């Protein structure tokens, strides 16, 4: 390692302790007196009181002897650490993983950390105590159900009873805030993740107590059983997935207790004294400088000290590290001595001074210690730092976290240390993501939030009717003052948090540095980070059920935001020096990354299915569009793994490489050697079908040249760990990650390839757990709203309560105080959540990811069939990030304020409209997500307008996909989209909530189903045009709608029959809630299908009423049949529907007369009132001809038991019965008039039809429906029916009703003997 200010390099080997002859020559470099003064200055002992003249001269010959005397420890400190009175067991105390446990537990390698893996597992330590005062600490990693304390060896535990549930076992439970010893009582305070519990036992007085973060919770138990055979073990019982870490004394206790308590494991006192004295000597070297010219010693600040290469100083340091190096490998000493020293450096000096000093110290460690010694020391140092950061309490200025992060930055700025830690420690040994997390304080008092935010505020939407306007104005003014004071407090808190966040970003900037290779062997930090980061993503993507391996989602959220900040910094920095590159605002992932195999996507799904399937089916497209040739041997190898795919022809014996042959290079297609299959392809940790194409799976030709059969390009078969900078960034002939550029992509790179892979990982992180965590944190805001509502109700009751009822007033006042205190606490916590999770900067980060996903999808879509290679999570992140921006960050921040908001909405709308029915997307889940996202999109005015802004051809294509027949596809969401486009235009269809639900508890107003109607006349017009377009579009669509309506309503009726039967049984019984939910869903589907039919008839009435069109008569007859069935079932007096609606069962709240009857009424009004005279006559004749028609059902709509005589006035409806006239807030007077006109028309037409009807012989009736005369004969079998029945049947089936023969044609039966008119089947 080169020292600063010197032109030569030093190694520890060069400066090992020299022989006497060598020493004599070296001592002549400086004056003997000066050397003596220098060595005495460095190695003086604290108790040395001799005058300078009487001191024994020191030189390098007698320095070892002097140093041995200096490090000699008193006998008391040298006491052995074996058996100590009052303690039994090994001197190194760990958890007893061999016999001292109950249940299933996961124990860390150091036997100090434990994770519950069963219902209530218990484990104790290997050492017990029977006399004296003892203490140990427990670091709480999760705040769930745990009981921590002491037990004896005779205690017996099981999956239900743990520590504290038996005699002679005692425990503290901070989750339920109780203490346990067979019985339980309230004790202590609630703990949170990151707290430290100290467990103290005094066996002299027989007492047991606990401390939380160094604060005593008081004596928990007294009169402990003592005496012969009574010894107490530290023990814990914890539930599933809870985790803690013990400190019995292997590391310095975080909180020291002076009153005679000692840790279970004795500290290395002798080594501790030696290390502290050696540290003093080391500090003396850094604070003194030799001036050989003047012959004197100069005092100097440690941060200004430089290693100039003087042999005197080097030999002095060599003597110090000869003794110091072995000590710095011990955990306790690293934390107690080195960590304390470095933290002191950070706390005392400025960041620049601290950085300089730490850099000097690390330089000296690497110079004078063996590599394995420095590596052990750095590993323990970072573990201690991470533990201190994670378990430090939140103080008002976040000072502790800032100091630990500053020291971490100072260490990581040292290049050699950074690379070692990145390669071996940060992601392999530590969960280093913790460094990027800012934990949320459970106790706002200890975090100082009361001082930062003295005034609390929460949304207050009061407005009782009858309140005077003056009072409202005064309250609003007071509310405004409180809100502004609260916002000022939130800003103060945010500024303090931003200091920590900036330090965390600095750490990631260091890890993403790609200029620190310095021409030496080895990779820059960024490429080491990429390898570790990809493994980190794989663990979290593939091990979703393995909780210990997963990164907690709250950590992932913070990590993502810091990573985005560092990534954008380097992206824009690269743009500044490369004008042809793009800004981070224009970033996206080029599509070739998805199919060239340079980036591993583990077992994550691609849009087109499994990777092995895509490589087989799209190999020709890869060759023609991207110059990528898939090797046939690799395809065959993949086929052997995927049993559901067709097998490729097996290769010959000569072509199959022998086991164990793994050449590092392979020739491309046309070469002499086949491509070998790397061994890691069979690794159980990787998905079988989703493997690296780049590792011997593909031969990549540079896209700038045409594919030539004579060219041979070597492809290195490297795994992730073996990738170098060239494999990622590329070089003159190799484009690295961007190999296989399609012609649609620009030749100029966006940025450095490595940053593209980091960006891809950031998008994946959001998909893994960040989105779910963002939704979870909204719970704090929901709690605030619930308590605010409760407080308003309580204040309301206080105002209305009579003053004479003092008892009620007292209870209400008490409740008001409780709610106010809780709201104060929650509003301050909400301020913390908003600053760390939902701030404007965090919102912009998520918005940036959304825009990246949109651009990535657009660019990948241009590649045609290769779009299928895109991972599904890009579409998921686009959908979910938009949802998060819309639902999670309000009302403090609005998405409408974001730059380019309207354009982004339109681009997302175009993607949803195009891809919800994209045949290149095969995954059921992602197709459903796209459909649901589009359904939600059309519910809100802003997003619906965005759909209307997309290009016309895309809108028409979207509507055409929506009008595809409902069979063989999930149609419910499609129907919901069409309904939302119509809602607000239909008959009585202007409501947000159903009228009968207005008095019930309001639901979440953000739900798509509760949005105000916002119909789209533009999309309705597209629908009308398409239905008129061809002869097959409308019949096939409407026939499928009628089929689904028949199914949904039949299922609904069958279910309410079962529900009614269950309700009428005498014995007590319960209806399955799932059955109720399915029943309500079938009802809602029936209503929505009726609304789609209403929209169709309104927009394109000729489809049903223009009988010159094929299938129009048949569709109208089917429609009339279904409408009559619905009306008869719903309107019959005291029928099944009535009885179930009256029960008002939970889960069937949406089932009511109004929604379904107004939908049917809307269809009838369009058929019978709005059409021309001829159309009305046709519709009337078909409706009356249906045998199920009952005029009473039409009268029921207006609350009339029977139809009035023609020409008479309508009587006043009975208010006890359903009537459309009772819903004047939802149905206009014009609509009611149309219903009355329809009723009058049907009454008259019904009377005329009854008078004109002639009796028909039963033999002449259709044997299928018995409603119409026989009018058609089938050929060739000769069976007969009415035309309506056979036409409806032929839409779905070509077989005869009776004999199952294939029907070739249908002829008119009456003219069969004289006419040849027929219609082809």
Protein architecture, described:
This protein is an alpha+beta fold. 46% of the residues lie in helices and 8% in strands. The protein has 39 helices and 27 strands. The strands form seven sheets. Strands 3, 4, 7, 12, 13, 14, 16 and 17 form an eight-stranded mixed sheet that branches. Strands 2-5-15-8-9-10-11 form a seven-stranded antiparallel sheet, with no helix packed on it. A four-stranded antiparallel sheet has the order 25-24-26-27. Strand 9 (169-173) and strand 10 (178-181) form a beta hairpin. Helix 6 (331-348) runs antiparallel to helix 7 (351-368), helix 20 packs antiparallel against helix 21 and helix 30 (1033-1064) packs across helix 34. The chain is elongated. It starts with 19 loop residues before the first helix and ends with a strand. 40% of the residues are buried. The model is unreliable at 1-28, 47-53, 461-473, 640-717 and 1311-1321 (pLDDT under 50).
